[in-house]
Specification:
Elements lengths: L4 H11 L1 H39 L2 H4 L1 E6 L7 H7 L2 H13 L13 E6 L3 E2 L14 E7 L6 E6 L14 E7 H7 L6 E4 L7 E11 L5 H4 L8 E4 L8 E8 L15 E7 L11 H13 L1 H9 L5 E3 L2 H44 L1 H9 L4 H30 L6 H25 L19 H24 L7 H8 L1 H16 L1 H12 L5 H10 L6 H36 L3 E4 L8 H6 L6 E13 L4 E8 L1 H11 L6 H4 L10 E5 L1 H7 L4 E4 L5 E9 L11 E5 L12 E5 L5 H8 L4 E4 H6 L5 H31 L1 H13 L4 H34 L6 H4 L16 H28 L2 H10 L1
Parallel strand pairs: 4-10, 6-8, 15-19, 16-18
Antiparallel strand pairs: 1-11, 1-12, 2-4, 2-11, 3-4, 5-8, 7-8, 9-10, 13-20, 13-21, 14-15, 14-17, 14-20, 16-19, 17-18
Helix pairs in contact: 1-12, 2-10, 2-12, 2-13, 2-26, 8-9, 8-10, 10-13, 10-15, 10-19, 10-26, 12-13, 14-15, 14-16, 16-19, 16-28, 17-18, 18-28, 19-26, 19-28, 19-30, 26-30, 27-30, 27-31, 28-30
Length: about 900
Amino acid sequence: MNTVAPAWVRVRLRTAPGAAAALALLVALTACLAAAFPRALDHYEDAGLGRAVEQATPKRTTLTVSAPQPGLQLSAAEREQALLPQALGRQFGRVVGAVPRPLVVDRDQSSYGVQNTADLTVPDPWIPRPSGVPPQIRLAAQNGLAAHSTLTTGRLPRAAGRVTAETAGVEAAVTAETARSLHVKVGSVIHVPAVSRPPLAVRVTGIVTPRAPEGAYWATEPLLRSPALMRVPGSNDPLYYWLGTLLLPPEAAPAMLATNGRPVRYWQVAPDGGALHAHELGRLKSAVATLEAGPGLGQMRAATDPAAQAATDLDDVLASYDRLASGVGPLVAVAAFGSATVAAVVLMMAGGLAADRRRTELTLLRARGASLRGLTGRLLAETAVVAVPAGALGLGAALLAVPEGRRLPALLAAVAVTALACLALPLRAAAAHRTVRLHGPREDTVSVRPSRRRTVAELTLLVIAAAAVEALRRRGVSGSSDASGDRLVSLAPVLVGVIAALVLVRLYPLPLRWLMRPAGRLRGAVGHLSLARAGRTSVSAVLPLLALLTALTTAAFGGSVLAGVADARDHAALIAVGADGRVEGTGILPATLPERVREVPGVRAVTEAGVNYEAKAGDDLTQTTLAGVVPADYAALARRTGLGAFSQEELRRPAGDRRDPLPALASPSVAETYGTRPFPVRLDDGTSVTVRIAVVRDRTPAVIGTRFLVVDRSGLSSQAARTSTLLLTGDHLDAGALRRAAGASVGVHLRSAERARYVDSPLQSGAEHIYTAAVAAGTGYAVLALLLALLRAAPERTALLARLRTMGLTRAQGRLLLVLESLPQAVLAAAGGALTGWATIRLLSPGVDLTTIALPSSAVSAGENVLRTDPLSLALPAAGVLLLAVAVAVGQAWWTGRRGSVRELRAGDAR
């Protein structure tokens, strides 16, 4: 039988080209999506890791290997030789070679050289002295100055002849910023104190500008490019002095031995952030750890000096990124598993549909002696001829569409899709035709009782789903560290959908049985016939129902996640600003400013406040922020924003003696300190007011912080009651117009701008994009599953309508019949999906904290941002299922009405 299989396959492809093309399109699309997902995830994760390394600045991420100056046991010539660039360059090559993979070195930004660790006080009077304190200088001889800077004035320094510890003078360069702050010019001479000899004269020959000031070459030690105004330690009064760096040529490094600056040799190894991969994060952390205190450090010492030390904060940066990825990854996996489940169900349904369409053909082959193995092999070959090239095409499209990322996971995903597509039809046919039958048994949903095997399987899935949900509730998505546990809890929504599908299919016959009797008493036959037709649905309908429920559950979960992320960012931005907009200056605002701001388009309301940040509360004069407001306006603002709403009467100044304490709204920390007793508050204008806490709220719009008092401004002095802050309410505030109205000296802070700052990692934005794409893909496959389920029954429905039309059924009644027949399953899927999505979110929300994916670590958050049900995410997909089912039924009835009844009857008989 195998000898005729190739010819049989060719014949099948020629006789059914439409089915083959549809299968190829489905496999290609699914393989493309499956292969693109891991590559897109890799791209976003790698970009997030690169951004984390970039934002941490080279000062933290660069590995600095430092060794003390050569010991006195060496001769003077040997000590000087050890500081020359030839020796340091050879050691640098060995240091770079000792860096283990996957840590990649950016050789262009890495450097080596010599610099003094003890700053040297110079006596030159022409250098500025802000507090009369002499400036200090650091000498640095770092390689590659010409390659990393642009000469602005003069020329680059050179070493004339052989420089030793006895050399009287050397040349140096300074950056433009150093020259501007320290008043250095080309030709300036700075005298650096030396030991037991006259000072070392350092002549500035050139002023340079860094080409990449934020690169590791300059930013690992910021003093190279920018001088610092340092505070004298231990002084009661703030005294400051300048600290700058002179850039010597590398050949002049031995001159530092004459000073008491304790020069050290150093080798700075900058990581290449663009070459770091998130999937190697564990190995990256191990590589950094071994360089700091492990075998790698031993190799560094062997390459440089036995007393060398290595230091970097790259391990902390990697750990911080790992925490972010650990919080985002499981949430993305929920959408990925849900969409993958729906896609797998659709592929199996496509195979099942093909097997049902060819049931008569396969039954005939089995009756004529075809072996089950041979029949399965033929079907596998027939499907593989179509699916394998389509899967390869989908893989190629994914590699072109997403050029970044690993290839192996994409290849495995495409292979899995192709294998499932190849096996769906043969396995379904093998299960249906394992015994030779002339007629298949009737499998009506209403009449067939589930087998014991099915009951055991359902109970097993129920236990697994319950265990996954309980594990997620106990540990939380963000807190799980076990990879297998993460996969299990990420599958929890899918497992809940599986259980719901099985339970709903078991319960589906009950309402049909209850409706049969009332429908039988109706005058028309359409209602009774539609219920009878709905009850004839095969028990295999559990597969499309599983696809719909899983898609609806994933869509509800994903939509709620995205809505929760948006709400978390909105609320955090509101906390950071206090309103939709905030206009605030360093002092009292102009009296006409509130009116000018009210006239700006988009501004609906302006609430004035006088915020005193230097108020001193109580007898111990504890610093506390006090805000003076108009109670009615401020209460309305607090109610609109939801930040500490209160009644205006609670804050209004009592009508009586002005010496009575003012009612105050206080933060919990202030209320805990002073209770309800009156206490004095001294304001920055020198006046004092007595307040009594009447309301306690965690937050308030006027003050960004956790220690505040809010009082009626009418009880304050005229100076303290003046407006310093405007809180704006409006939907579409124009930042440019507000800044023009406020003026250059007043700051404008908008809630929308603050919200836009919260996505600081490509991993966070990528997770949102992947989540949206996964939900969209799952929804699309769910629609396809519904269409396949309806297409499966289309020939039988068409023949039924044709027969009934010969008996007098009108076109309107035919449309009503098909709609009523499809409604029970559509209502079951829609209601079950909405209910399952709601239950899944309620079950999993205690373990899901959206803070990690929604906000950067620097953002202000009001506690945990837990997952909440989004009504639109539940209602819209469910309504879409109902509308699609009705539309398909109406369309089929319309199409059948256009064709002749005789033709349909013949087609139906042929089927």
